[in-house]
Amino acid sequence: MYKFYKLFDRSSFRQPTTADELYPIQLKDVHKYYDSGGIQTPALRGLNLRIDHGDFLAVMGPSGCGKTTLLNMLGLIDVPSSGSIYWGQQPAPATEKGRTTLRRDYIGMVFQQFNLVEELNVYENIMLPLRYKKQKATFDPAELKEWMQRLRLWHRRHAYPYELSGGQQQKVALLRALASRPSLLLADEPTGNLDSTESVQVMQLMQELHRAQRLTIVMVTHAEQWAHYTQRIVYMLDGKIIGEKQT
Ligand SMILES: Nc1ncnc2c1ncn2[C@@H]1O[C@H](COP(=O)(O)OP(=O)(O)OP(=O)(O)O)[C@@H](O)[C@H]1O
Ligand SMILES: [Mg+2]
User: Fold this and answer.
1) Residues 203-233: pLDDT tens digits?
2) If you take atom 4 of ligand 1, which residue's CA is the nearest one?
3) At what angle do helices 196-213 and 141-150 cross, to 10 degrees?
4) Which atom of ligand 1 is nearest to the CA of 71?
5) Is residue 236 part of a domain?
6) Which of 39, 65, 72, 238 to probe ligand 1 with, by most ligand atoms within 8 A of CB?
């Protein structure tokens, strides 16, 4: 009986063993409705998107068009109301446990609101995802130090989030997303709180990781200027993709 149940338990999503097996990531006719107080807000309305290994793409569109909702779908933070998402040849894990494992092992996220842990200092915040990751061997402290120096965070490594500027918090959030060596980086306006010099530093770091390590990146931005560091720009309106161009 137990075995019979297991056969149909979709938590048996097979975790990819190599990053290649994650791709392509495909969203097919994805709809998402949020329900608040009996009112349904449509956030995604039939979205189709394919992301291949090594893609670097920017998502652009007006406030409220569904960009963060899309990243939450890709980051397995939230699930579609209808439609499907494929990771490689498999439908996305149907259970929270399956989603958490996939997220922990392969995905780094930079949230629009940073989500730093107030009780931990800069260094501890950056190292946090590694506590939960199985393959810690991929982590290189010397490289992390170099990244922190490049983004001018090293001298602030013992500071707590409340002692940092918005831009510094944003850079900590980016390094936290990168420290666990994800295959897929999802960044929600990673330059939103940075001045132009800092934005260039952040965009160059992402570009290097994309080129040198084939990091797949999906980045939300309001500014064409930063979108041009990517290879593909996807334009959204009212929960759908309305156009795309190669940069
Ligand atoms: N948790 C939620 N509950 C109810 N409605 C939500 C929720 N999250 C988002 N929405 C609604 O879904 C739509 C899409 O929101 P989303 O945050 O994805 O937009 P966005 O493109 O990221 O906007 P911005 O550029 O302002 O960050 C909006 O109408 C928003 O009000
Ligand atoms: Mg948003």
Assistant:
1) 999 999 999 999 999 999 999 999 999 999 9
2) 34
3) 150
4) 18
5) yes
6) 65
**Residue among 34, 47, 71, 237 to mutate when testing ligand 1 (max atoms within 8 A of CB):** 34
How many domains does the chain divide into? 1
114 falls within a domain: yes
The CA distances from residue 141 to 76, 136, 138, 146, 179, in Å, are 28, 11, 10, 9, 9
Tell me: pLDDT of 133 over 90. Answer: no
For residue 97, the domain's CATH number is 3.40.50.300
Residue 213 lies in a domain: yes
**Residue 13 identity (one-letter amino acid):** F
Contacts of 159 by beta carbon, 8 Å cutoff, 6+ apart:
121, 122
Residue 173: Cβ within 10 Å count: 26
Cα 22 to the center of its chain, rounded Å: 14
Q: Domain range spanning residue 220?
A: 53-75+93-246
* Closest among 180, 27, 169, 6 to 102, alpha carbons compared: 180
What would the pLDDT profile of 47-65 be if each residue is shown by its tens digit?
A: 999 999 999 999 999 999 9
